[in-house]
# Entry
Amino acid sequence: SLFELPDFDQHEQVVFVSDRDSGLRAIIAIHHTGRGPAMGGCRMWPYADSVTAATDALRLSRGMTYKNAMAGLPIGGGKAVIIGDSKTTKTPALFAALGKAIDQLGGRYITAEDVGTSPADMQSVHQRTRFVAGLEGEPGRGDPSPATALGVRVGIEAAVQHQLGVDRLQGLTVAIQGLGHVGFDLARQLHEAGARLIVADIDPSRTQRAAEAFGARISSVDDIVAAEAEVFAPCALGAVINPSSLPRLRCQVVAGAANNQLATDDLGEQLREAGILYAPDYVINAGGIIKVCAEYYREPADSVEGRVLAIKQTLAEVFATADREGISTRLAADRMAEARFS
Ligand code: NAD
# Structure
């Protein structure tokens, strides 16, 4: 039953929304508001049933609490999911109905775009509530990916400093999986810092562009996890570290933007045992939410960079805590985050 789903009892509030006129069926999960209103994107996905949708909403909202706390943001964690196919069943009325439901929460939850939703959809949400971030066309509103890429770059610096004792990226090799919004910008930054690149993407035009612009070596999509490189940077899919990929890794550091890189939590410990330093995903990829949060609260744009750069120091603390306590970096990050929000 729904009440027995993982993490259900750790949530402050879970709201089921149904609107007959627009056909909206959505779930808003508010995990924790101790640090401030819960902020997290709205995902639209053709979930097979409401239990699958609720499971996803609960997992994602809990993750936002940890991410936001570790980034030192004055917000808690929440998430909304809409059950539906974003390619065929999207309407402005659907998002306006979601906006009405969010407004009824009185500011306890602030939404933004996520997988399957866009700034234009957020504009429809905005018709009924002001508790929405990432609107189209407002000054300073824009793609959070460059901020995410910056955070990943300094996170890689922290990781190689800890693992290899080097304080520059010059001459190191980084294997990047996925050259999308974050991955391509990360490739540019690493190239400018003097790193060598090995890249893979299911879209060959992207790897070709990186080869031409940055002299990157192209790997097959299958073999990128096994690339001979100091750093493996997952910037495409989740669950990329799993029981079949882990023995193939030849890197010393895993540090990239992708969400939910570990297929299961215990893989954090297995990476540690294999002598590979893992930069916990929700710590290293927080640049985007730092930017979105600053924009929502109308903070000066130039305050964002310093906070994104601070990801380097936060990761250094995670690595030091893990060493000191003899635990995985994943567990160290979770404990540090929990101390910041509970
Ligand atoms: P994106 O969709 O722009 O890019 C993903 C890229 O990965 C695409 O180029 C795609 O072709 C490629 N790809 C897909 N499957 C692949 C495979 N099997 N092997 C190699 N390449 C593959 O996404 P993005 O915005 O760059 O985000 C990348 C990752 O970072 C995602 O996991 C996302 O959740 C996470 N993330 C992004 C942000 C952000 O600010 N955009 C913030 C936090 C986390």
